[in-house]
């Protein structure tokens, strides 16, 4: 039988922590006013949180007549979360405190042997991050790993991730959890980037947002009504498989995707090589286009045309408030300028386009937001069904300085 008094205590604790997390530094009287709880109840809860090291006093209220009230905030360093952005060429790991601030970041080339070696690499980097700061790994409570693929919830395998060898043949989440000894959540990296952009720059303003990543591959993350849309199998946003660009009925299009075959890194390099016989990297193609190379301009114009068509297709279905474009190719402003007129040619309504404010740290920010929310719920709601604590994002300028 469920103990109703225990549920009540958990709801009370959760409400108090939400108020302090959102509005701290804040007085107990203000917490009582916001939550509707009695001042005595709030005082008891805050005293317990302070004794356990989760909240701390940070001064007194200013400008009030009479006795000034003590104000409280969450202790940022009381616990940490790890956010991991796993890519085919690089892996980034950030440790963040309870305020969302980055306290450590390490980037390494992704081990090319893949599979279990990737699991071991991530575990090693997380432990090294804590060790470098002389922080006990016991303080790290939750980790979120962004992967360039789709998690199969039944097998634990990561599907549609051709850039990381062997990851589709292991139960990646379970192995990560065993390696770290803490709760590990695995999410598509573009989904995390969408959450990161929404959390850091658009929360409450543009809650219907699409994040479009263009780089080694192409994918989209959809935040609708402030919530991430994953789809029935977790593959929502795999727009590389939209059936245009290359012939969608060719066998290769079932592996890579018809749109991705014409818009991502290999497509741009391959198209330039085909037209000139010269091998150039994508940055070199962009440099050539800026220098007046008409072939390079033609290559980029074709890729932009397909991207514009893809954005129009997405907008026709979900009608987003804006489309944020990121990734090593998508984040280039000169490419965005090519995309915008292509959208206008094939879509009757204006679609606001923005370049990612977080750049290559968008997925890390999204992972941090999920990890912090999960940790706060675990710590302060005791697993209360449906419990959710919304974590305010750190200031964008501060966050960018921390991860620079």
UniProtKB/TrEMBL annotation:
Superkingdom to which the source organism belongs: Bacteria
Name of the protein: Sugar kinase
GO terms for MF: kinase activity
Protein family: Belongs to the ROK (NagC/XylR) family.
SUPFAM superfamilies xrefs: Actin-like ATPase domain (SSF53067), Winged helix' DNA-binding domain (SSF46785)
Pfam families hit by this protein: ROK
Alphabetic keyword roster: Kinase, Transferase
Classification via PANTHER family: BIFUNCTIONAL UDP-N-ACETYLGLUCOSAMINE 2-EPIMERASE_N-ACETYLMANNOSAMINE KINASE, ROK (REPRESSOR, ORF, KINASE) FAMILY
